[in-house]
């Protein structure tokens, strides 16, 4: 028999919540969860699960939730909550018997408002009829019963006046329009245990100008279904943010980048990608970073990848480059130059020239590469920049016949967005999707738009 | 560069793709450093599955290690639950010793300077400051 559970959601990046939950449910084999009551505007999500075990597996490593509770009752106010709880206990007389002798405490969680400690204690006292016989233990209780209050104060901000007294009355009026939940804490999330602080860029020693922020980096690793001893590869590793958060979830991480300087780190300060892993004590999970152009990759046949997660360069803040030269004439015959009896291109100090490349072409190559190197059901997750508020144009998302696009989620900035695109590698015998090559639709689209101040094509022609 | 990585890289030049000699690369004039890592039996076991043993034997021999068994050791590899602790205690003495040796060879042995040569096209790549450089000159890029 399934039971009701309440997920408390975090308020940031609400459009990534369901993808994170679904990805973890899939990873941990929790079947058929109905998330259809979810609203991005609300911090609560009611679902049905078989047992606490499932709830723990689902929530434990989430970044976009705060925790999960077995839900016993809800109500528009405290009286209604109590009435519903009493009815629930009557129809389910044994629901609390397992916990009656456990040590316990009560928690009060307030949304958009908080009661004073005194009022909280008064409220907790009203639950005496639960007949919990265990001893109260505020430090290490076996069970935590939680009252969640949600003050619906959506209009309050607009109505706020200078008069403090008036505001207070307004507040009390609004409090009536709230909701209450009562449940038992089953699992708090990684977010609640302060993971964001651990991965905060402010405390990370080696970062660059385009280092990926920690929260969405952790979310990406969750949606990529990184798990213990799965092989994770980032072909645009930069300073290693996405590998770092993937190692947090037990992934074996390896990266490459065409920019040798970023990989070398700062030798004077002794900091580099590897030292970031050491700083967080997850260096066993870090294999190596290679100086490599992934369009001319060196990965061997036996090197099969479980997950690819990356943030390709957009060609805006940092140049987007691949091997080769834009001025082939200048390099004609240079392969014959000999220095000190050695071909110059075979010398240790030789620097391989690079040429500018289009983002669109690069992403097409990324999909092609992923279709070849990913294990079946492995995921490709990458961030792609798109232009906002453009008339008569749809965003074109690259597609590959062996990769099923399962998520396309947007993080909005002012005039542009970046999207997390998530694909699953399928077997051609079981799946045949369409192929859309970005480079054939529009070339150097994002870059031109960026430097145009994101004017639409019509405006540009004028 | 950890020694294990040598097991995952071949010559990136496209015309070498079909040649068996482009993997593994040949490691020469290498400067090795041992950097301690915490031992985790499950981690090594999971890496063992991914290894091409013949390639490992060849590279290990070039770097002076001839003590590896000729065939990839078959260890029982139970499906690991996420939260399961190491099953170090469940391993017999020989297996544990083998895993510790592999740990030392694959993860603790770092090549900090050296040359990697493709046995098919003779192109020479370098490891500089522990970072292997597989970038190519323009005339070898299509």
Termini of chain A, distance in Å? 65 Å
Strand tally of chain B is 4
Q: How does the major sheet of chain A shape up?
A: 7 strands, mixed
Which bin fits the share of residues in helices of chain A?
A: 25-40%
Strand tally of chain A is 17
Assembly state of the chains shown: heterodimer
The first-to-last residue Cα distance of chain B is 28 Å
**What do the pLDDT scores of chain A average to?**
89
Instruction: Output the CATH homologous superfamily of the largest domain in chain A.
Output: Vaccinia Virus protein VP39
CATH overall fold name of the largest domain in chain A: Rossmann fold
Number of helices of chain A: 16
Strand content of chain B: 15-25%
Main β sheet profile of chain B: 4 strands, antiparallel
The CATH top-level class label of chain B: Mainly Beta
- Tell me the CATH architecture of the largest domain in chain A: 3-Layer(aba) Sandwich
Let me know the average pLDDT of chain B.
Answer: 90
Written account of the structure:
Chain A folds into 2 domains: 191 residues, VC0802-like (2-Layer Sandwich); 266 residues, Rossmann fold (3-Layer(aba) Sandwich), CATH 3.40.50.150. Chain A has 462 residues and is an alpha/beta fold. Chain A is elongated and about 90 Å long. Chain A contains 16 helices and 17 strands. In chain A, a hairpin with a 2-residue loop joins strand 12 and strand 13. Chain B has 3 helices and 4 strands. The mean pLDDT of chain B is 90. Classes of the chains: A alpha/beta (462), B alpha+beta (142). The interface between A and B is large, with 44 and 43 residues.
């Amino acid at each position: 028999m399934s039971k009701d559970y309440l997920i408390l959601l975090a308020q940031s990046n609400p459009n990534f919540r369901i993808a994170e939950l679904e990805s973890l449910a899939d990873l941990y084999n929790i079947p058929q969860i109905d998330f259809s009551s979810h609203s991005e505007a609300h911090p609560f999500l009611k679902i049905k699960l078989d047992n606490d075990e499932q709830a723990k597996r689902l929530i434990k490593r989430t970044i976009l939730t705060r925790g999960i509770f077995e839900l016993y009752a809800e109500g528009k106010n405290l009286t209604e909550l109590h009435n519903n709880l009493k009815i629930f206990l009557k129809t389910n007389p044994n629901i609390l018997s397992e916990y009656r002798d456990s040590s316990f405490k009560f928690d009060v969680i307030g949304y958009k408002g908080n009661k004073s400690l005194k009022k909280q204690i008064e409220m907790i006292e009203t639950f005496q009829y639960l007949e919990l016989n265990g001893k109260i233990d505020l430090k290490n209780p076996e069970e935590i019963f939680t009252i969640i209050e949600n003050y619906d104060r959506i209009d309050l901000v607009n109505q706020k006046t200078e008069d403090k007294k008036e505001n207070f009355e307004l507040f009390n009026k609004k409090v009536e329009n709230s909701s209450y939940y009562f449940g038992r804490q089953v699992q708090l999330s990684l977010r609640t245990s302060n993971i964001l602080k651990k991965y905060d860029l402010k405390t990370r020693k080696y970062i660059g100008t385009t280092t990926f922020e920690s929260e969405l980096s952790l979310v990406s690793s969750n949606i990529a279904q990184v798990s213990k001893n799965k092989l994770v590869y980032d072909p645009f590793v930069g300073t290693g943010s996405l590998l770092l958060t993937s190692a947090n979830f037990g992934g074996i991480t390896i990266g490459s980048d065409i920019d040798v300087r970023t990989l070398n780190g700062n030798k004077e300060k002794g900091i580099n990608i590897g030292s970031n892993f050491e700083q967080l004590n997850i260096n066993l999970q870090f294999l190596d970073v290679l100086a490599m152009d992934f369009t001319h990759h060196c990965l061997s046949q036996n090197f099969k990848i479980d997950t690819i997660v990356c943030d390709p360069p957009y060609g805006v803040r940092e140049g987007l480059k691949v091997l080769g030269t834009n001025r082939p004439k200048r390099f004609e015959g240079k392969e014959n130059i000999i220095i000190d009896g050695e071909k110059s291109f075979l010398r240790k100090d030789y620097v391989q020239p690079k040429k500018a490349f289009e983002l669109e072409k690069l992403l097409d190559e990324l999909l092609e590469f992923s279709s070849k190197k990913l294990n079946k059901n492995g995921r490709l997750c990458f961030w792609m920049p798109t232009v906002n508020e453009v008339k008569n144009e749809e965003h074109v998302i690259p597609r590959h016949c062996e990769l099923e696009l399962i998520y396309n989620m947007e993080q909005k900035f002012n005039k542009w967005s970046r999207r997390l695109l998530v694909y699953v590698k399928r077997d051609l015998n079981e799946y045949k999707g369409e192929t859309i090559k970005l480079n054939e639709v529009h070339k150097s689209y994002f870059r031109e738009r960026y430097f145009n101040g994101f004017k639409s094509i019509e405006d540009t022609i004028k | 560069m950890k020694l294990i990585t040598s097991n995952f890289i071949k010559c990136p030049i496209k015309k070498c793709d079909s040649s068996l000699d482009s993997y593994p690369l040949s490691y020469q004039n290498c400067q090795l450093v041992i950097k301690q890592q915490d031992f985790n039996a499950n981690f090594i076991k999971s890496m063992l599955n991914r290894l091409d043993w013949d390639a490992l034997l060849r590279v290990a021999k070039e770097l002076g290690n001839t003590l590896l068994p000729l065939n990839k050791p078959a260890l029982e590899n139970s499906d690991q639950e996420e939260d399961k602790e190491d099953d170090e205690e469940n391993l017999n003495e020989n297996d544990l010793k083998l895993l510790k040796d592999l740990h030392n060879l694959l993860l603790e042995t770092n090549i900090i300077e050296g040359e990697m040569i493709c046995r098919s096209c003779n192109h020479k790549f370098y490891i500089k400051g522990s970072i292997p450089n597989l970038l190519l000159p323009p005339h070898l890029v299509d």
